[in-house]
Amino acid sequence: MQTSRTLLGSSKLTAATIIAIGALALSGCTNASETGPSSAPTASGSASFDPASIKKDDALAAMVPAAIKSKGTITVGSDTSYAPAEFLGTDGQTPVGYDVDIAKAIGATLGLKVQVQTSEFTGILPALGPKYDLGISSFTINPERLSAVNMVSYFNAGTAWAVQKGNPKKFSLDDVCGKSVGVQTGTVQEDPDLAERNKKCAADGKQPINIVTLKNQTDVTTRLVNGSIDAMAADSPIIGYAMTQTNGQLEKLGDVYDSAPQGIAVAKSDTAWADVIQKTVTKLMEDGSYKKILEGWGNAEGAITKSEVNPAAKS
């Protein structure tokens, strides 16, 4: 389990907010989910995707690498603090979210079980191959990641910002210098977005941004709710979900920008496995399962029409 935690009992958090955020951040000895015949409830109370609705594709299953086929399970690394993409359900143990459901659908198509294991976000890509068969954790496709792993596009998201309701600190995206901004460690919001903004602050002779980087997005959200940071930046679906789960205490600031595809990560040496994943995602797009999963989580606007292996990425 990830170790970085914010004290939920501090400052201005209401009981409703503690329940909403705390349900996403409960720690446990192990956090793994294997697909089964029934679906688990999510923190928002809706049922997750049922993999039993997906039929096995024998032709695709025959293409699965022998090492994965022999163990019968796809092991997926995921940072389960990033609702609604991947987070822990109300039991504090079971990974849920649209990324988790997509992983389950991939497994069902290939006739394999899926085990989603909680990992720190920055630890997933280095562990592909030896520990994880796939990394599914809202990874924006960028040149740096493409140089290290294979990425199969499956979703589209941009950067969005949030502040406390009413923006009491009068935070403006036109002047972030000297302000405190929360982001999850290792995200594109941390680098290059805030890193580049900080360079401009220095060039203009202004105070640097106080970039508060935390391992868990839930902790970033909690910091914003209790007022210890001025704003937070994250992927657009995460900002939208955070607003619904914090009892109206946050609001979105500005428009979504820098929309880019996100990718399922595969070890750099496993090109054949990456091709299988791309073909499987394409099959799920064609039979409607992909769109159904995203609609179930209120994120159909992030759907893409074509999945690719290692698509060109913005620098």
Q: Which terms would index this structure?
A:
315 residues; alpha/beta; nine-stranded mixed sheet; three-stranded antiparallel sheet; 25% strand
Description:
The chain has 315 residues and is α/β, with parallel strands linked by helices. 32% of the residues lie in helices and 25% in strands. The protein is built from eleven helices and twelve strands. The protein has a nine-stranded mixed sheet, sandwiched between helices. A hairpin with a 6-residue loop joins strand 4 and strand 5. The longest helix is centred in the C-terminal third of the chain and has 16 residues, at 271-286. The protein is globular. The two termini are 32 Å apart. The model is unreliable at 1-47 (pLDDT under 50).
Number of helices: 11
- Supply Rg: 19 Å
Query: What low-confidence regions span 5 or more consecutive residues with pLDDT below 50?
Result: 1-47
Q: Name the average pLDDT.
A: 86
- Main sheet: strand order: 1-6-2-7-12-8-11-9-10
Topology pattern, helix = H, strand = E: HEHHEEEEHEHEHEEHEHEHEHH
The main pleated sheet reads as:
9 strands, mixed
Q: Which secondary structure elements does this structure contain, and how are they paired or packed?
A:
Layout: H1 15-25, E1 32-34, H2 58-61, H3 66-71, E2 73-78, E3 81-82, E4 86-88, E5 95-96, H4 98-109, E6 113-118, H5 121-124, E7 134-140, H6 143-148, E8 149-164, E9 180-184, H7 189-203, E10 210-214, H8 217-225, E11 231-235, H9 236-245, E12 250-267, H10 271-286, H11 289-296
Parallel strand pairs: 2-6, 2-7, 9-10, 9-11
Antiparallel strand pairs: 1-6, 3-4, 4-5, 7-12, 8-11, 8-12
